[in-house]
Amino acid sequence: MKYQLRPMEERDIPALAALERICFSDPWSENAFFAELGNPSARFMVAQDGTGLILGYLGLYHVLDEGYIANIAVDPLFRRRGIACALLSDAEGFARDTALSFLTLEVRESNLGAQQLYCRHGFSPVGLRKNYYQNPKEDAVLMTRSLKEEEAE
C-alpha cells in the first residue's frame, strides 16, 4: 500500500476527528485539532494514500529536550500495513533531529498490540498511571524511549 506522511493541514481536521471517534472512547474534537495548528510545540503528521484518504496520524509535543507522543491512530481498515511504524519512525527522526532526550507516551494497559509495537520501536514500560483512562476506566502504561543513550553509542 502506498501512502505518504505530511504535516497536518486544516483541511484534514474533519477526517482526523472522525478517525478519533473510531479509535478512541474519549476522542479529540475538531476544535482540539484546530488549536494545534498554530502551536509551535506541536507536530502532527498525517498518513495519506494517493487518493487523499487519511489512513492515520501521530501528534507529538516537544518542550525543551522532551518529547511526548499524545496521539497515534490508524484506521482499523488499514492496520498492520506499516503505517503506525512509519509514523513512529518519523517521530523518532524528528526527535533525533531536534536533539530530544527522550520520547514518552501512555497506552491502555489492555492494548497489548500497541505496547508490542512501541517495544519494537525501543520504548520500555517505566510506570503505571492509575485510572488514567475513562470509558472504560483503565490504567495507562507509561512508556519511554531514551534517545541520549543512543547518541552515546
Put the structure in a nutshell:
The protein is α+β, with helices and mostly antiparallel strands and 153 residues long. Helices cover 31% and strands 38% of the residues.
Structure in words:
Helix content is 31%, strand content 38%. The protein has 5 helices and 7 strands; from the N terminus they run βααβββαβαββα. The chain has helices at residues 13-23, 30-37, 83-97, 112-120, 148-152, and strands at residues 3-7, 42-49, 54-63, 66-74, 102-108, 124-133, 138-146. It has a 7-stranded mixed β-sheet, sandwiched between helices. β6 (124-133) and β7 form a beta hairpin. The mean pLDDT is 93.
Structural class, judged by helices and strands? Answer: alpha+beta
What level of helicity do the residues show? 25-40%
Number of helices: 5
Gyration radius over CA: 15 Å
Distance between the termini: 34 Å
- Major pleated sheet: 7 strands, mixed
The amount of beta strand, in percent, is 35-45%
Order of helices and strands: EHHEEEHEHEEH
The side-by-side strand order for the widest beta sheet comes to 1-2-3-4-5-7-6
Poorly predicted ranges: none
Number of strands: 7
Mean pLDDT: 93
Shape descriptor: globular
